[in-house]
Design brief:
- The complex is a heterotetramer.
- Chain A is of the alpha/beta class.
- Chain A folds into two domains: 210 residues, Response regulator (Rossmann fold, 3-Layer(aba) Sandwich), CATH 3.40.50.2300; 131 residues, Rossmann fold (3-Layer(aba) Sandwich), CATH 3.40.50.2300.
- Chain A contains 14 helices and eleven strands.
- The N terminus of chain A is likely disordered.
- Chain B has one domain.
- In chain B, strand 1 and strand 2 form a beta hairpin.
- Chain B is globular, with a radius of gyration of 19 Å.
- Chain C is 74% helix and 1% strand.
- A two-stranded antiparallel sheet of chain C has the order 1-2.
- Classes of the chains: A alpha/beta, B mainly alpha, C mainly alpha, D alpha/beta.
């Protein structure tokens, strides 16, 4: 409480001062920064260098998508100017780039800034400046809290609700399960784990027989998998990013551990995870999904896939079609276009935020059938639905209902 | 007890990766008396070259020698074109150049082949031993590492070029005075280190999957193994690599609460402790000098 | 591998190394040039926050923070001849000290700075003790290991209560005190500026003091230093401690300015960047820290401007070209230039 | 009289600091010359300059070819063996490996093996120590190793830098008698730098006295040896 008051005081002081010292922050187009009659300036922060540079594919896809949008006439006649900067997955650098985008480039908003640490670092600044930080590229549950951070909104299903779904499913389908969990020792791993425990409820302590974490700096996770198998677990929950998930699936198969395997949604790519791990080893793996996997043969004749392919061929020919980051980037860019289209000519930050927070059953071509986005002033989680699916050795087969996670409901 | 045996075997299998890299580290250290921070990236790039050739349909048995040769040439070229112009600049300037090389190679690989992980086929096929604890590939990898180690030993001990390289590394001024072309010996050292790095990369990639950052942490483990064993001894480096793998796994399994979270820190802590008591590593040789 | 340090005009050691010192008249000439440059720099430094936007002020503040950290590294490497690839660890310890004190105990931000310094001094000193036994590459590896390990320690579950684990800690930016007409960015700029100046003056005095001479004696000839009765073990550990103190204070300032810390803020790339800054600025030349700070702050941005996909490669190329152009850093270049200048004035 | 080494106007410097100010001297084919002088006179620098180990200017003719612009390795390959100050032992290699290094520029294995035997013949102590790490040899043994290693090159000219330094008088005697034999039997010319003028003047034909980078006196060894004034002023014995 005390802190908040300080913040308010600071904000007041900051406004007065910046006006008093005639800093160029607020000048032309005072009510619609980043917008002219012909252009909308959007900012983005992504790791083009450093340990997480794999994710830069998303920003590249988005950039390519806006090329397509611009070529097709833009959004309500305005071209999108997409400024994407590198933070190397370093929070201090993310702050610098966010300030550059807001203060120097004067963008309308920042969207799809990537990573929990980087988004955490800029969240306070963005809210103080009242610049929308939309559709952030992380599933950390904290980015969906309209009370504390009204200018920050997530996009993908949050990690906790994913964990909850697994927990619920295990309690109902395998009440005698002995669970071994491997998780990445960061916000993602811990969030899914926390969700899993919540989903298991009061049986969590008795059902989870072993936990093993790993650091992204470790070359292999063999030791963890061997340890989990030795615990006698018959359910293996694999909360890992693609490389480690693939290693773990492969290792579990090699040591003949015939547990029911659940793999986190981030690692469901057939091409980037299951094929490297071995299709035989991957058969029977369970996960959740919300986007179509373009390598999955069941979508071979899907017109949405054809559109996506045409887009990739024309606007992002260097892109790797096997990477589901391109599907992700394509879809999130479409979401942004949807919001900006809805905002019409009233492209103030307030109105854009309002449009983002009032999506009703918006669906996207690459969503799994039955999925949609819904937001409100109190619900900052656009995608909350997921569907369980199982890999049959060739493709993912959805089963059960489209499930809704309740976090922040 | 069973878990202990399992973790030991897993540790040896993982240690094989580190041993492989440590060998390459020692190789370059012998030649230039620096730790080359770009070494892991060079190995990664070589592996991508091999992957690209496989993708173009070049048969496997041809890809490996070709990659080794290309990497050797690349190593020599880097020494001649990048390192040599530095001349006798201070050590720290060399280190900055290594860091620069690191950044260049990493970024270039990502630019050319992007960051999605790629499976890399094993020359030893699928399948595994000891109930899956160690794959055929890992056994093959350890065998190759040992073979390379023996070949290196024979090369340094019994060939004139090997002798010249040792002499040049130990005392460049004296080496010049007996007519050894020290500059070329250093270039040769770079070439060999790059070639061994390429082998290491090709052996490691099937396990950790190929991507531009795959060597980031392995290099650290390779350094650790090399330093633990003693930077002056290829045998020590290989042994050190295995030790690091085993220590790390046992610490992760048996130290309660924080063990799993601190696998790497515990391993590094042990290594630093060893160094404090034996500053040249377990197998390191102190050159005796009577005055 | 012995760490080759370049001696500079600052160090009396250059006289013993057979480098001809400029004649007294020329020396005062050089000093005059340096002093004028210093005054101009100072004036620019004071005026800058009134002439530029908040974003640039923020960048300049970060640049000075890195400079303070590099200054600390310079004391260890440039003055004492020990090598560290792990100063990011001390930066992290300083940052966490400040953040935890502010977040958990509500301590005022100004008080966290000396505390960060003290704690880092102790950590550095203690780390320096085993490091005494290590030389060259071995010390490089040990310090590098420290840089890799430290972020992992900060996310350990037993400490999560204080460190917030992987989620990190958000900090509030302080206002200017005493009703000064400054916005928080400007105020933090001046705070950093003052601390940087203080740090620089202290470092200069240290170099000129008996302790400083002992540190340099150890760098130039450890055996001789020992035979002259210098307690090398104590002084080397002390150098580690003082060096860590500087870097820790920088880390604390960094945490306050960025308003957020997490284990990911202190990836080992930070340690590597500090070494790059040190070398580019000039090992052993204290003002070089400022240029080193500027290099690691701004050059990656320039690289990104040139090519986004290959920004890492561009940065690497710039680094290597720098080393060709000025292998002994800016300090070495300046020294050579001043040497040539004074020689000409002597012949005249 | 044909000269194997003819040096005119040799200048050399360390950085900005000039050490040699234009030396003229020579070594006859099959002859032995010596450079005498006190510490710091520039003797070692002269040898280093000859071998291209430091920057130098002037003319250096070896067997008629100008070598003043050549790299150390190339000069060595022409048959100039330098036994450096401090002996330049490869301390980490064995005695025999050190000797092998000396023959690095040659190709015939048979000849090298023969020369190795010859070296052991001259220095039997080295045979006893052949598999020992060279760093563990005594000072005298290391000096012998250095000379033996230089001989492995089959040199035409040997440059010896203070071969007697730090050795017991008896060993010095032994070594100089071997050097005389080498000179006579193998026709190896020598340029010896010495502080121990008494011993070397017995061996050399020609002597030069060096003082702070200038040759202040030259003549046959006998002349220098018999000149009381020089002995008192420069040689101190």
């Amino acid at each position: 409480m005390h802190k908040r008051r300080n913040m308010l005081k600071y904000m007041g002081a900051g406004l007065v001062l910046s006006a008093g010292l005639a800093l160029p922050a607020i000048s032309h187009a005072a009510d619609m920064p980043g917008v002219t009659d012909t252009e909308i300036k959007l900012g983005n922060i992504a790791p083009y260098s450093g340990p997480a540079s794999a994710y830069s594919t998303i920003a590249k896809t988005i950039s390519a998508y806006f090329d397509k949008v611009n070529e097709e006439g833009g959004i309500n006649g305005r071209k999108v100017n997409f400024l994407s900067y590198d933070d190397g997955y370093s929070p201090p650098k993310a702050v610098e780039q966010a300030r550059k985008l807001v203060e120097s480039d004067e963008v309308l908003l920042i969207f799809q800034s990537l990573g929990t640490p980087s988004n955490s670092a800029i969240e306070k600044y963005m809210n103080m400046k009242k610049v929308p930080q939309l559709l952030v590229a992380t599933g950390a549950t904290k980015f969906g809290n309209p009370k504390e951070a009204p200018w920050t909104m997530g996009w993908q299903p949050n990690y906790q609700s994913e964990g909850i779904i697994y927990g619920r499913w295990i309690t109902s389908e395998m009440p005698d399960a002995k669970i071994g969990v491997m998780y990445q020792n960061d916000d993602f791993g811990k969030d899914v784990l926390a969700g899993l425990k919540a989903g298991l409820g009061d049986k969590a302590d008795s059902m989870i027989v072993a936990e093993a974490s790993y650091e992204v700096s470790e070359p292999v996770v063999d030791s963890q998998v061997v340890k989990l198998k030795a615990s006698g677990a018959n359910v293996f929950i694999n909360i890992a990013t693609p490389k480690f998930a693939a290693q773990a699936i492969k290792k579990a198969h090699e040591i003949g551990w015939d547990a029911t395997q659940i793999v986190a949604n981030v690692s469901t790519s057939v091409a980037a995870v299951l094929t490297p791990a071995g299709l035989e080893a991957s058969t029977g793996v369970i996960s959740t999904g919300y986007l179509k996997d373009m390598q999955d043969p069941q979508w071979a004749d899907d017109p949405a896939k054809k559109d996506w392919e045409a887009f990739m061929d024309k606007y992002y020919p260097d892109g790797n079609k096997a990477s589901n980051f391109t599907v992700y980037g394509y879809s999130v860019a479409q979401t942004m276009v949807h919001i900006l289209t809805q905002a019409g000519d009233d492209l103030t930050r307030e109105n854009v935020l309002k449009q983002a927070a009032s999506m009703k059953d918006v669906t996207l071509p690459l969503f799994l059938p039955g999925m949609s986005m819904n937001t409100s002033e109190t619900d900052y989680f656009p995608i909350e639905q997921m569907q369980l699916m199982k890999f049959d050795g060739e493709r993912w087969v959805n089963f059960g209902e489209v499930i809704s996670g309740e976090v922040g409901g | 007890m069973e878990l202990l045996a399992q973790q030991l075997i897993t540790g040896i299998a993982t240690g094989g990766i580190y041993a492989c890299m440590a060998l390459a580290v020692v190789m370059i250290y012998q030649a230039i008396h620096h730790l080359n921070f770009a070494q892991g990236e060079m190995a990664m790039f070589s592996t991508f070259v091999a992957w690209q050739m496989l993708a173009w349909g070049v048969p496997y048995w041809l890809v490996i020698p070709l990659t080794v040769v290309i990497s050797f040439a690349g190593g020599v070229a880097i020494e001649r074109l990048v390192i040599r112009p530095l001349g006798d600049a201070p050590v720290l300037s060399h280190i900055v150049v290594f860091i620069g090389l690191f950044a260049i190679i990493n970024s270039l690989a990502g630019f050319i082949w992007d960051f999605t992980i790629k499976p890399f086929p094993s020359p030893f096929g699928e399948g595994s031993q000891f109930g899956g604890l160690i794959s055929n590939h890992q056994i093959g990898m350890i065998a190759v590492t040992m073979t390379v180690l023996v070949m290196l030993f024979l090369f340094f001990q019994y060939t004139r070029v090997g002798l010249a390289m040792r002499a040049a590394a130990e005392n460049p001024a004296s080496a010049r005075l007996v007519g050894i072309r020290v500059g070329w010996m250093i270039a040769l050292g770079w070439g060999m280190a790059a070639a061994i790095g390429a082998i290491a990369g090709i052996l490691i990639a099937p396990i950790v999957f190929l991507e531009p950052n795959m060597m980031l942490s392995i290099l650290l483990y390779g350094f650790a193994g090399a330093v633990l064993g003693g930077l002056t001894s290829p045998t020590g480096a290989v042994f050190g690599g295995f030790m690091v793998g085993i220590i790390e796994n046992l610490a992760g399994t048996y130290i309660p609460v924080i063990g799993g979270e601190l696998k790497l820190p515990i391993a590094l802590f042990l290594i630093v402790t060893v160094l404090v008591f034996k500053p040249t590593g377990l197998f390191g040789r102190t050159v005796v000098q009577r005055v | 591998m012995s760490v080759n340090t370049t001696t500079t005009a600052d160090s009396p050691a250059s006289a013993t190394k057979g480098v001809s010192l400029p004649a007294p008249a020329a020396a005062t000439g050089n000093a005059k040039i340096m002093r004028t440059a210093g005054v101009i720099l100072l004036a620019i430094g004071v005026a800058a926050p009134f002439l530029s936007g908040n974003f640039l002020i923020f960048q300049l503040t970060m640049m000075m923070i890195y400079a303070i950290a590099i200054l600390g590294l310079n004391i260890l490497t440039g003055i004492n001849g020990q090598f560290s690839l792990g100063h990011g660890a001390f930066y992290a310890v300083g940052a966490y000290t400040a953040a935890i004190m502010m977040d958990q105990f509500g301590v005022g931000y100004l008080w966290t700075l000396p505390m960060a310094g003290i704690i880092c001094f102790m950590v550095g000193f203690l780390f320096g003790l085993p490091a005494l036994r290590l030389d060259g590459v071995y010390l490089a590896l040990a310090t590098f290991a420290l840089a890799v390990v430290t972020p992992q320690l900060f996310k350990l579950s037993p400490f999560e209560h204080w460190t917030s684990g992987v989620m990190g800690i958000v900090i509030s930016k302080p206002d200017a005190p005493f009703g000064l007409p400054l916005n928080p960015d400007q105020w933090l700029y001046f705070l950093t500026f003052a601390i940087g100046l203080l740090a620089y003056v202290c470092a200069r005095n240290l170099v000129g003091s008996r302790t400083g001479r002992a540190l340099m004696a150890i760098r130039d000839n450890p055996i001789a230093a020992r035979s002259m009765g210098v307690n090398t073990a104590l002084f080397k550990s002390l150098a580690f401690g003082v060096s860590a103190l500087y870097t820790g204070v920088a880390g604390a300032l960094g945490a306050i300015v960025v308003q957020y810390i997490s284990p990911d803020s202190f990836h080992f790339a930070l340690s590597v960047a500090l070494v790059v800054g040190l070398v580019v600025g000039g090992v052993g030349w204290l003002p070089g820290a400022l240029f080193g700070g500027a290099f690691i702050m701004f050059v990656p941005n320039i690289a990104e401007e040139l090519s986004k996909g290959l920004s890492g490669a561009v940065y690497g190329v710039i680094m290597i070209l720098m080393m060709y152009a000025i292998p002994t850093g800016l300090g070495g270049l300046l020294k050579a230039a001043l040497g040539a200048l004074s020689k000409r004035s002597m012949t005249r | 009289m044909s000269m194997l080494l003819e040096v005119t106007g040799l200048h050399a410097s360390y950085g900005d600091f000039r050490v040699l100010h234009g030396l003229d001297f020579s070594v006859e084919k099959g002859g032995i010359s010596t450079l005498l002088g006190a510490n710091g006179a520039g003797k070692t620098t002269t040898l280093r300059a000859l071998c291209g180990m430091i920057k130098r200017s002037g003319t250096i003719r070896f067997d008629g070819n100008d070598i003043s612009g050549k790299a150390t390795e190339d000069i060595v390959r022409m048959g100039v063996a330098h036994v450096p100050e401090g002996r330049g032992t490869f301390t980490g290699l064995t005695t025999e490996e050190n000797l092998q290094c000396g023959a690095m520029t040659r190709s015939s294995r048979a000849e090298i093996a023969r020369d190795l035997e010859q070296a052991y013949h001259w220095f039997p102590r080295l045979r006893e120590r052949r598999n020992q790490q060279a760093g563990t040899l005594s000072g005298g043994e290391q000096q012998m190793l250095a000379i033996a290693r230089a001989l492995m090159l089959r040199p035409r000219l040997m440059l010896l830098d203070e071969p007697s330094f730090g050795l017991a008088p008896l060993i010095v005697q032994e070594m100089f008698s071997i050097l005389r034999k080498v000179n006579q039997e193998e026709q190896v010319s020598m340029l010896i730098v010495e502080q121990n003028a008494g011993v070397v003047l017995e061996l050399a034909d020609t002597a030069y006295v060096l003082e702070t980078g200038d040759i202040v006196m030259s003549g046959t060894a006998a002349e220098i040896r018999d000149n009381e004034t020089i002995r008192a002023a420069y040689l101190g014995y």
